[in-house]
């Protein structure tokens, strides 16, 4: 069966996303087993005592190109309180990610047709720009579902002058990513 380049791109990056999720979960379980389990109060009390700080760090990370993977915040949320609290946090994380992506999209739109953008695009976003030209709005879906930098892709798409309504429609796939990854993290912590 011959798959289109767009589907191949989606599958390739989807597999990378799941590999990264497995690496993050593996690192977390190792950290939990060898560090946290030996001094659990010292680690957990510091982190869980300041949820507002965790939420602010998450918002900052989502705005600045996903510095910290959202899966780490999902792991934090599942260990924090009840299952209902986890799903509320998961919805919060997905919504923040969606809107931070839209905020960076709007920043990109601001720079659309400005001379400074060319210099910015050629230095910071040189790897993503050819992908946008090749895959167009399909890139939004792939970035929403995979570890491609969501905010950077959103900024790039905005800077290319894509319409807001189309961006917002395709960006809804971000919620699907959080649902899938959140479910996987939930299942790994029930056992």
UniProtKB/TrEMBL annotation:
Keywords: Membrane, Transmembrane, Transmembrane helix
Protein name (record): Short-chain dehydrogenase
Spans traversing the lipid bilayer: 14-31, 52-78, 90-112, 135-161, 167-186
Species lineage: Bacteria, Pseudomonadati, Bacteroidota, Bacteroidia, Marinilabiliales
